[in-house]
Amino acid sequence: FREKHKQEPLGQLSQKLLDEIKSDRLVLEGLAKRLGGGSSTIKEASAWASEKLTQLKFRHDEQGFGTFEALEHLSLGILGKAALWRALAIASILQDRLKQMNYDELLRRAEQQFTLVERTRLELARTVLKPSESRNS
């Protein structure tokens, strides 16, 4: 989608988000390495988030519902990531290995991502979720 629609706003949004999500994934992976251990919750969260976010594709269909649905999933993932940053910030008070991160900056970026996705999602909702004329008669 990004390549085919790179000159369109949605294509530009998806490229920006992909770059930032890759960066966030690297932060999570680095944090998981620093914490060590076999089956850490952070490692599992990082793997899950990476898998879901890299699989996400904006589907281009006539009605736009596939794109709307993808934006729904993406917004939920971003909210989950923001919740994780907040939890890690609280945990860092007692965990020295968690203190080296700038959670305020990570949270700010997640909030900006959510704002961009939410704005696009709501714009698309106007056309995708409107009742069809045949259902109104």
Give a brief description.
With 137 residues, the chain is mainly α. The protein has five helices and no strands.
Topology:
Blueprint: H1 9-35, H2 41-55, H3 65-91, H4 103-128, H5 133-136
Helix pairs in contact: 1-2, 1-4, 3-4
Description of the molecule:
The chain has 137 residues and is an all-alpha fold. The model has no long low-confidence stretch (mean pLDDT 78). The chain is built from 5 helices and no strands. It is elongated.
The gyration radius over C-alpha positions equals 18 Å
Q: What helical percentage do the residues reach?
A: over 70%
Give the CA-based shape. Answer: elongated
- Strand segment tally: 0
Q: Separation of termini? A: 36 Å
Mean pLDDT: 78
Query: Any low-confidence stretches, pLDDT <50, length ≥5?
Result: none
Tally of separate helices: 5
Q: How would you characterize the largest beta sheet?
A: none
Strand content: under 5%
H-E string:
HHHHH
Q: Which structural class do you get from the secondary structure elements?
A: mainly alpha
Properties at a glance:
137 residues; mainly alpha; 5 helices
